[in-house]
Design brief:
single chain; eight-stranded antiparallel beta sheet; 8 helices; 25 strands
Length: 448
C-alpha cells in the first residue's frame, strides 16, 4: 500500500527525536538558573526574550542577566525568587527536540512536580554542593521512582562554591545513587555543574578536569529513549466516531483517536472494551491516507470489518492482548486539590477518553516520602499527599498497571460537583478482587 510523502516523513520521525524531561530540587538549588543557562548557551532564546531578562535583571540591581527569569514567568515567582508553577519550555538542537518542565522545589508544591514528571522520560534532580542530599532531595527521588521515570540525572550544582572539589561531588553522588537505587530507579547519572558559571551545562568545564563524563546537554542529547513498539500493549482509546454519510463515503465508519501504546496493523483481530465485541482491522487512515501499520503516539482512524457498536470512551485492543476489566481499582494517588480526599467520597474517574462515577472505598495508607514509611489508614489525603486508595467504579474499565503502561495505567479523580481535579492515580500491579456482594444504592442513586 502506497503512502504519501507527508506520511513517510511522519513515519521517519523516530520517537527518540523527542525527549521530555523535568527538573526538580530544593529551593535555591538553582533549577531555574540551570534551565535558563541551558536555553541561553544552546542558543534557544529569542533576542527579545533575552533583552527582557536583561532589563528585569538591571531593575533588580543585578550586574549580569538572571537566567532564572527565563522560566520564572509569574510575577509572584519573580518577586519571591522561587518557582511556584510548572514552567514548560520547548527547544531543539540539531540532535534532538526537547520539552522541559521546570518544577517547584517547595514541599507544598509536590503536586506540581508530579504534574511535570508524569510524562517525563528523564528527571534532573539538583543538589546544592554545599548542602548535599537533604530531605527534599530524597522526596524528589521518591516521586521520580513512583512515577517510574526511566532516567534520573543528579546535577550537583554550585560546584564553584566548594572550589570544584571532586571529593564533595563523589560523596554526594554515592549517597544519592545508593538511595535512588534502593527505590528502583533504573538509571542514574551524576554530573558536577555550576549553572551560574556554565560549567558542564552545555560546554565542558575547565575547572573540573577530574570529571570525564558528559555535560548536561550532551547527556540529554544522547540518552536512549526506548519505545519498543513491538512489545508494548497496543491500546487505542476512541475519541470520536467518524461517519460522513456523504455520497462519496456513504458507509464510512471510522473510530478516531490517538494510539496510547503499541502498534496496530491491518488484518489484526481486535476487541472493543468494555463490551468485549471482536472484529478485525479493515483499514487504518493516517493524515487522510491509508496505511498498513500505525503506532504510538500517532493519531489515526481505525476501520473495522464488522459493524459493531463502538463509541467514545471505548478501548480498542488486540484480541490476544486484551486487559482484564474490573469495577475495582487499587492505586497510588497524588492528591492535588486543596480539599481533602476522604473515604466514602463520590468522585468521577477519568481514564483515557472515558469518565465514570466512582466511590472511594478505602484509603489503606499514606506514604511518608521522607523515610518511605507507610502511615496506615489515614482516613483522608490532603494536598500534596501520596497514598494508596481503593476505588469502586460504576462500570467496569480496562485499566493497565502503571508499571506496564504509564498512559493507560494512569487516571484522574474528579469532583463531580465542579469538575475540579482531585488526584492523579497510578494503578497498582493488580486490581482488587470484587466480592460477590449485593450493591446498595445511596440516596443519590450512585448504585455500584
Amino acid at each position: 500500500m502506497s503512502t504519501t510523502p507527508a506520511v513517510e516523513e511522519l513515519a521517519g520521525l523516530s520517537a527518540t527525536t523527542l525527549l521530555r524531561f523535568a527538573t526538580a530540587g530544593s529551593v535555591d538549588d538553582g533549577k531555574s538558573t540551570l534551565v535558563g543557562r541551558l536555553l541561553h548557551d544552546s542558543k534557544s532564546v529569542l533576542t527579545d526574550q533575552l533583552e527582557a531578562v536583561e532589563h528585569a535583571s538591571r531593575s533588580r540591581g543585578a550586574a549580569e542577566p538572571d537566567l532564572a527569569l527565563l522560566t520564572d514567568g509569574l510575577r509572584a515567582e519573580r518577586e519571591q525568587g522561587i518557582t511556584i508553577d510548572v514552567a514548560y519550555r520547548y527547544f531543539a538542537t540539531p540532535r534532538r527536540r526537547f520539552i522541559l518542565a521546570d518544577t517547584p522545589g517547595h514541599v507544598q508544591y509536590t503536586r506540581n512536580m508530579v504534574t511535570g514528571a508524569s510524562t517525563a522520560d528523564l528527571a534532573v534532580v539538583l543538589v546544592d554542593a554545599r548542602n548535599g542530599v537533604i530531605e527534599q532531595t530524597r522526596r524528589h527521588a521518591a516521586v521520580a521512582a513512583l512515577l517510574r521515570v526511566p532516567h534520573v540525572v543528579l546535577a550537583v550544582n554550585k560546584m564553584d562554591l566548594v572550589d570544584y572539589r571532586e571529593s564533595v561531588f563523589a560523596k554526594i553522588a554515592e549517597e544519592f545513587t545508593a538511595y535512588a537505587g534502593d527505590l528502583g530507579v533504573p538509571e542514574i547519572t551524576a554530573i558536577p555543574i555550576s549553572a551560574l558559571a556554565g560549567d558542564n551545562v552545555v560546554e565542558p568545564s575547565a575547572n573540573m578536569d577530574w570529571y570525564g563524563g558528559p555535560t548536561v546537554l550532551e547527556h540529554l542529547e544522547t540518552v536512549p529513549v526506548s519505545h519498543d513498539l513491538t512489545s508494548c500493549h497496543a491500546r487505542l482509546p476512541v475519541q470520536y466516531v467518524i461517519r460522513p454519510q456523504t455520497a462519496e463515503h456513504p458507509d464510512y465508519r471510522g473510530y478516531a483517536g490517538q494510539i496510547a501504546a503499541g502498534t496496530f496493523r491491518v488484518g489484526e483481530s481486535v476487541t472493543v472494551l468494555p463490551s468485549g465485541r471482536t472484529s478485525k482491522v479493515a483499514g487504518i487512515d493516517l493524515l487522510g491516507t491509508p496505511v498498513d501499520v500505525a503506532w504510538t503516539p500517532q493519531s489515526i482512524t481505525l476501520l473495522l470489518e464488522d459493524d459493531i457498536d463502538v463509541s467514545r470512551g471505548d478501548l480498542i485492543v488486540p484480541s490476544h492482548d486484551a486487559p482484564a476489566t474490573s469495577q475495582d481499582v487499587e492505586a497510588t494517588v497524588c492528591h492535588v486539590a486543596d480539599t481533602p480526599l476522604t473515604v466514602g467520597q463520590r468522585v468521577l474517574l477519568k481514564h483515557t477518553t472515558r469518565t465514570v462515577k466512582a466511590i472511594v472505598k478505602e484509603i489503606p495508607s499514606r506514604l511518608t516520602l521522607d523515610d518511605l514509611s507507610q502511615h496506615p489508614s489515614p482516613g483522608q489525603l490532603v494536598a500534596n499527599d501520596i497514598g494508596r486508595v481503593k476505588v469502586r467504579l460504576s462500570e467496569a474499565l480496562a485499566i493497565d498497571t502503571y508499571a506496564d503502561s504509564r498512559r493507560t495505567g494512569s487516571f484522574l479523580l474528579i469532583d463531580p460537583a465542579d469538575g475540579t481535579t482531585l488526584a492523579a492515580g497510578m494503578a497498582g500491579e493488580s486490581f482488587a478482587t470484587a466480592e460477590a456482594t449485593n450493591s446498595v444504592a445511596d440516596e443519590d442513586g450512585w448504585d455500584f
